[in-house]
C-alpha cells in the first residue's frame, strides 16, 4: 500500500494537550489515515525530523470577508499556519444584502474595519442576496484555506428594517422577521450570529452601526432562532468599558438562551494585575455550566506608525511630509531645513499618543513586540538626549524609511495579557486579519504565541499552546472533524521548526484593488502547511494550491 502523503519522523503535538510523540502521519483523500505505527511509503513524503507536526491553526476572529474576493490565498494568516478562518465578526457582514444596499454595507465595512470601500465593491462578485447564496459564492472563489462565516446583526437589521434599522427599535413583526432571517442563515450554513455594541463602530455619516443599541430582547430572540435551527456561536463586541454590568449580563443571558457557545472580544488594562481580575470575571460568567468564552490579542497592540503609513505627528511640516508618499518622505528627511522644521513643530504639538507608549519594533528581520518601558520612543529619546521626534527621524533615516513603531493602546501590560490568555476561558487571537489593513498588523499572532509565549517566556507548554491554537478554537466554531491530529480527521496540518518559528517584519504594500495599501507580515519556520491533505505552503512560501472549502454549520 502507498499513501498519498506521509509526514515522516516528526514530533506530533496533536492539539489535545497530550504529550508529544514521535510518529509518522499518513494522509489519503484529504483525511488523516494513520498516526504512528509502521506507516507505508507515501507518493509524496515530507521530512519532519527535528520539527513538530500540529493541527492547522484556527483563527476565529478575522475580517477577510472582502479580501477573499481578490486574495484567495488569504494573506497574511496563511503564512502563519492558519488553515481555518472565521469571517463575519463584529456584526458587519455582506449578507444578507438587497442589491440596492451593497454600497451601504461596503461603506459600513470601510468605516468600521478600515477596508477601502471601492476595493470591496470592485473586488467581490456580489452575486447573492441571502446568506446561503453568499456561502455558495465564497465556494466559487476557491480559497486556499477553509472559511466559515457568521451572519451579522448590522446586515440583518438593515435587510429587514432599512434606514429605521440604524437607530430605531423594531416592531414585533420586524423582530420576528430578523429572527427568521438569522435562523434561515444558520440553517444554510452560517456558523452563528455576530453583533457589535461598541460605540466606536459607526457608519460613514457618524451614526452608530445598526444593532448597537438593540434591546437585550432582540438579541435573545435571535439567539432562540439560532438554537431552533440547530445551534451556533453568538459572537459579540460589547459596549465596554461603558457598561460592564449590563453587557456581561447580556452575555450570560445569551448562553442561557441558546445553551451554546458565546464569544466576546476582551483586553487588559494598563496594570499588571488586570489580566487575572478579568480572567476571574470571565470564569464567573460560566457559572452553572454556561459556555462563555473570550478572545484577546496575545500582545500589546495598536496603530503601527512609520514613514510607510501613519506619522506620529500631523500638524505643520508633518502635514506636508504626510502628503509626499513613502519615497518622497524618505527623500525629504535628507533636507536638514525641513528636519529642523519637523522637530520644531513636534515640540510645539503633542503626539497622537504619548511617546512613552510608542515602541520601536527594532531593526532585525523579526519585530520586537515585547520590549519593556526602556524601549519606548520616549525612553530611547531620553537615553540619546533627544526629543522623540529626533529619535523617530534618526531611526527612520538609518533604516531607509523602514523603521516601524507600535502605538500601544491595547494590552499595555504584557504581563496582564499573558495572565488573561492563559486563563481557562480566554484564548489568544483577535488578530483582525483583513481589517485595519493600513493601521494595525496583528495577523501573525499565532507565530507570536509560539515564539514569545512558548519559546521565550515559557508561559505555555508547547502542547498547551498548540491546543489553544487548534482544538480549542475549533470547538468554539463547532467543528468536530478538524483541530486535532487523529485518524479520520481532516488533514489540516502544520510542520513547524519550533526553534525558528516567528513573525517577520511587517511590510507595507499596495496590492489591494485600485492600488490601496496595507500591511502584510510573513513568517519563518513553517516547513509545510496542509489544508484538506494538500500542501498549500512549503518552506514559508505558498505553493499556489488552493485547497480550502467553505465550512458550514454542523448543527
What does this structure look like?
The chain is of the alpha/beta class and 555 residues long. It has three domains: 3-56 and 493-542, Roll (Urease, subunit C, domain 1); 58-298 and 412-460, Metal-dependent hydrolases (TIM Barrel, Alpha-Beta Barrel), CATH 3.20.20.140; 304-407, no CATH class. Helix content is 32%, strand content 19%. Helix 1 crosses helix 2 (117-123) and helix 16 runs antiparallel to helix 17 (462-469). It is globular and about 70 Å long. The model has no long low-confidence stretch (mean pLDDT 96).
Brief synopsis:
By secondary structure, the protein is α/β, with parallel strands linked by helices. It is 32% helix and 19% strand. The chain contains 18 helices and 24 strands.
Set out the fold topology:
Layout: E1 3-12, E2 21-28, E3 31-35, E4 42-47, E5 52-55, E6 57-59, E7 82-87, H1 102-113, H2 117-123, H3 131-140, E8 146-152, H4 153-161, H5 164-167, H6 172-187, E9 192-196, H7 216-228, E10 233-237, H8 244-258, E11 262-265, H9 274-285, E12 292-296, E13 304-306, H10 317-322, H11 325-332, H12 336-348, E14 358-360, H13 377-384, H14 388-398, E15 404-407, H15 414-421, E16 426-428, H16 445-456, H17 462-469, H18 471-477, E17 493-496, E18 502-503, E19 507-509, E20 518-520, E21 523-524, E22 526-531, E23 534-538, E24 541-542
Parallel strand pairs: 1-4, 1-5, 6-7, 7-8, 8-9, 9-10, 10-11, 11-12, 12-16
Antiparallel strand pairs: 1-2, 2-3, 5-17, 13-15, 14-15, 17-22, 18-21, 19-20, 22-23, 23-24
Helix pairs in contact: 1-2, 4-6, 6-7, 7-8, 9-15, 13-14, 16-17
Amino acid at each position: 500500500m502507498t499513501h498519498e502523503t506521509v509526514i515522516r519522523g516528526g514530533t506530533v503535538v496533536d492539539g489535545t494537550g497530550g504529550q508529544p510523540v514521535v510518529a509518522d502521519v499518513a494522509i489519503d483523500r484529504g483525511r488523516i489515515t494513520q498516526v504512528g505505527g509502521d506507516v507505508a511509503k507515501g507518493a509524496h513524503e515530507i521530512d519532519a525530523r527535528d520539527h513538530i507536526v500540529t493541527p492547522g491553526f484556527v483563527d476565529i476572529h478575522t475580517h477577510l470577508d472582502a479580501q477573499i474576493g481578490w486574495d484567495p490565498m488569504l494573506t497574511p494568516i496563511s503564512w502563519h499556519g492558519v488553515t481555518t478562518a472565521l469571517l463575519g465578526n463584529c456584526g458587519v457582514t455582506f449578507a444578507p444584502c438587497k442589491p440596492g444596499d451593497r454600497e451601504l454595507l461596503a461603506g459600513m465595512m470601510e468605516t468600521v474595519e478600515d477596508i477601502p470601500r471601492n476595493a470591496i465593491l470592485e473586488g467581490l462578485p456580489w452575486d447573492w442576496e441571502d446568506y446561503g447564496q453568499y456561502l455558495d459564492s465564497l465556494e466559487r472563489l476557491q480559497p486556499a484555506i477553509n472559511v466559515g462565516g457568521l451572519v451579522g446583526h448590522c446586515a440583518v437589521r438593515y435587510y429587514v428594517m432599512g434606514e429605521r434599522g440604524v437607530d430605531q427599535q423594531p416592531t414585533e413583526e420586524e423582530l420576528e422577521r430578523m429572527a427568521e432571517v438569522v435562523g434561515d442563515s444558520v440553517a444554510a450554513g452560517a456558523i452563528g450570529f455576530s453583533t457589535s455594541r461598541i460605540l466606536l463602530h459607526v457608519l460613514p455619516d457618524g451614526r452608530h452601526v445598526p444593532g448597537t443599541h438593540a434591546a437585550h430582547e432582540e438579541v435573545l430572540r435571535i439567539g432562540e432562532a439560532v438554537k431552533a435551527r440547530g445551534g451556533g456561536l453568538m459572537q459579540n463586541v460589547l459596549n465596554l468599558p461603558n457598561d460592564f454590568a449590563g453587557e456581561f449580563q447580556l452575555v450570560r443571558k445569551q448562553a442561557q438562551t441558546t445553551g451554546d457557545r458565546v464569544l466576546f472580544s476582551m483586553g487588559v488594562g494598563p496594570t499588571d494585575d488586570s489580566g487575572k481580575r478579568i480572567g476571574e470575571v470571565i470564569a464567573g460568567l460560566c457559572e452553572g455550566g454556561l459556555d462563555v468564552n473570550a478572545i484577546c490579542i496575545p500582545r500589546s497592540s495598536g496603530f503601527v506608525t512609520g514613514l510607510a503609513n501613519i506619522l506620529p505627528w500631523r500638524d505643520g511640516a508633518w502635514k506636508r511630509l504626510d502628503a509626499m508618499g513613502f519615497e518622497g518622505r524618505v527623500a525629504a528627511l535628507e533636507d536638514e531645513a525641513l528636519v529642523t522644521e519637523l522637530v520644531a513643530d513636534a515640540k510645539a504639538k503633542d503626539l497622537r499618543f504619548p511617546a512613552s507608549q510608542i515602541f520601536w519594533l527594532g531593526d532585525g528581520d523579526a519585530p520586537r513586540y515585547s520590549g519593556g518601558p526602556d524601549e519606548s520612543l520616549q525612553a530611547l529619546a531620553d537615553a540619546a538626549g533627544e526629543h522623540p521626534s529626533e529619535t523617530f527621524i534618526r531611526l527612520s533615516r538609518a533604516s531607509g524609511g523602514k523603521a516601524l513603531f507600535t502605538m500601544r493602546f491595547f494590552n499595555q501590560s504584557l504581563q496582564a495579557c499573558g495572565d488573561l490568555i492563559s486563563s481557562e476561558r480566554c484564548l489568544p487571537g483577535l488578530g483582525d486579519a483583513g481589517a485595519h489593513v493600513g493601521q494595525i498588523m496583528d495577523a501573525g499572532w499565532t507565530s507570536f504565541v509560539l515564539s514569545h509565549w512558548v519559546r521565550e517566556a515559557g508561559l505555555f507548554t508547547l502542547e498547551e499552546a498548540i491546543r489553544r491554537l487548534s482544538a480549542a478554537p475549533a470547538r468554539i466554531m463547532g467543528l468536530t472533524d478538524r483541530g486535532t491530529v487523529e485518524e479520520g480527521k481532516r488533514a489540516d496540518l502544520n510542520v513547524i521548526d519550533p526553534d525558528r518559528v516567528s513573525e517577520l517584519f511587517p511590510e507595507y504594500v499596495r496590492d489591494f484593488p485600485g492600488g490601496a495599501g496595507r500591511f502584510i507580515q510573513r513568517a519563518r519556520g513553517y516547513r509545510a502547511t496542509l489544508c484538506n491533505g494538500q500542501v498549500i505552503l512549503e518552506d514559508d512560501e505558498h505553493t499556489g494550491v488552493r485547497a480550502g472549502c467553505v465550512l458550514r454549520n454542523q448543527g
